[in-house]
Amino acid sequence: MAQQKRKDVAVRRDKDRLLLDFYYQGVRCREYLSVKISKDGLRYAERQAKQLEQQILDNQFNYADWFPSSKKCSYFMSKPTNSDMTFEDVADEWLKQIERLHRAEELKFSTLKSYKAGLQCNLRYFERREIRHISKDMIDEYKYELLESSLSKKTINNRLTPLRQVFEFAYEHGYIDHNEMDRVRNFTVELPDIEPFNQLEVNAILEYLEKNEPKFHAMFTVLFHTGMRIGEVLAMKWKNFDVIFRSYHVKEHFTEKRLTTPKTKTSKRAVQLTDEAFSALKNHRQYSFLGSEFIFCNQYGDPWVSSENIMRYVWDPMLKKLGIAYRIIYQCRHTHASLSILAGDNIQDIAKRMGHKNVGTLITRYAKYTEAVKFQQPKIGSFLSSQKQPTQSNGHMLSEYCQNQESPITN
Q1: Given 159, 190, 306, 333, which is the most exposed site by the fewest CB atoms within 10 A?
Q2: Is residue 376 part of a domain?
Q3: Who contacts 392 (Cβ-Cβ below 8 Å, separation ≥6)?
């Protein structure tokens, strides 16, 4: 068995006693020595620490031999040794770790739920196998069995995520000497097609809602005019609606019917509102401003925690009546991005408004629309042709200003 990653054994003081502080099989251990603090005691403790560390690294450490009266002896005696740890053994330890992360609010509930679902699938296949004997070929075979069971490639890649983390956990804790998952690749997944609404369809939808479903008019106006995610719109609160600066501060969203904070820093943002979105929100005050902190509420005065019922009772029937091809509500976000690009909005502003990490995501996802804008007539021609006469700049003729400047081309 190869050596596990080095974890120093530290000598620490506790009042007049010395103790060894170290990690063993992923568990922090603190065991007192029989010597008191003195020069001789410290030298003895350092020798013990060095010897203990070497035994752990060489996989020769036996807890009961070193600390026979420790309460941890029974714990480690019931645990399998590094050499015969099964996938289930390691997965149990990893699961406890990520649950601690969730309790510490370092891991979102939706992520934890996804990990657990993927792990259950992995356990059915690898459960009793010793993790050090699970090979790349076995994992690839598992991938293709899932594919033959009619699961999508995206779903299979999601199942592989907790599998990767369990193997990484095993490697970091010395249960395996190399990580087989480093050589396992995800399936290539094509992003789903973007099917935005056109301007006529957007106007028809908003006019229909204003006339027939006025309580939903502001919701969909915000969706189309800001590109916010549906979970962010459902979580909108009046206190985050900035009337002075005509913006909305995104701080929360609904996911898995739970109100939580956004996953990324860029998702927490101030979204500038168009005149239409601003007016729609102001008009919507009559429905919820006095009765709830949430802007959009159901018939019981509670916030919409998901879009399921909105789709079933409002969205789907409306598209049928209007004769508009069916799309999911998320296409409102794609509509905002694509039409904003075609309208000539600044790419960086669009990306910031939508909560993207960078403009690269926007350019890649909406390449068809950014390319269409590139093929438009350059604006510089019309700008230059409109300036037939020298223009004044700060009281001076522009031609005079240019004559006094060095040409940037010759610098």
Answers
A1: 190
A2: no
A3: 398
